[in-house]
Prior knowledge:
By secondary structure, the protein is α/β, with parallel strands linked by helices. The chain folds into three domains: 1-61, 434 Repressor (Amino-terminal Domain), CATH 1.10.260.40; 66-163 and 299-322, 3-Layer(aba) Sandwich (Rossmann fold), CATH 3.40.50; 166-297 and 326-338, 3-Layer(aba) Sandwich (Rossmann fold). The protein has helices at 14-21, 25-32, 40-53, 77-93, 112-119, 133-140, 166-179, 195-210, 227-238, 252-264, 282-286, 298-310, 335-338; strands at residues 66-71, 96-101, 123-126, 146-149, 161-164, 185-189, 220-222, 246-249, 274-279, 292-295, 319-322, 325-327. It starts with 13 loop residues before the first helix and ends with a helix.
Amino acid sequence: MARPYRTTARRVTLETVAKDARVSVSTVSKVLNGRSGVSMATRRAVEERLEKHGYSPRNTPNVAKTIEIVFYELGTEWLLEVLQGVDKVARELGCSILLTRSHDLHSPEHGWADGVVQRHPIGVILLFSSVSAADKRQLRNRSIPFVVVDPAGKPDPDIAYVGAQNWAGGLAATQHLLSLGHREIAMINGPEDQLCSQARMSGFRSALEMAGLTCRPEFLRWGDFHPEEGRSIAAEMLRLPTRPTAIFAGADLQALGVYQAAGELGLRIPEDLSVVGFDDLPIASLSWPPLTTVRQPIRDMAETAARVITEPLDPQRQRLELATELVVRASTAALEIAG
């Protein structure tokens, strides 16, 4: 169940908050329940007084038996993995999962917190990273815990998050290719403004530097995490006068795009080109040849996040990064074999 983050020596009433904010009790009630009909200035003033006085509801009998997930992109295997992890905890608690779609990777659309307040779930899992001070205040004033999974950017110090060791994953993927004798290694990464992409790129560069190598500028490309972008960028790289003998893709779906580009150019995997992905989605082991990839524990990340918001811990203190693991399959081969 949702728990208040603080306790007070005496019970703060709505009347106390209303008097300090110079509004009516009904206005405070509207703000508390996320209802319309209150100006932004008044809403902000009430929220500040709720926080100032440490107000928390007298009881929570109407808390919905739901865990809410706020996400930005529908229809991805990544989201399905998140749902699997959250569902495990939801089943244990006998509650349901509610999905709310946002339309921005870094920050949800305006007013999303109002909807959460109205529904009052057990807790909220956010698939983005930027939470405004007003939204944080709004959720915390109602004792609704929240946690970010795989943050797109660097969360504020007071925001809980569960991520993966992306730097270590990028390092392991590149060191694997180096151990196979590859030196002309390219990387097709995700969006440059995402924290995970930056960390994977940093791990890639670090592995090359440890081996005394530098990467050709044309072998480093930012894109998105979808097959189409992987295909188009790989096609450009594989047509270069000096083409890469191995490509590290920032996501499994990108790697499948690399497969497609290689096939269109008559290149065989792994004989002519080694490919490594990242995520270890179910499709990775089903592709042909089965994809060597870095396993990101997406389900475990989601399950951990669900436990953070449902167990008697202060969610603000939870900042976790779960281990990644290199999974070697048939899409990589030694350079002399790849010949």
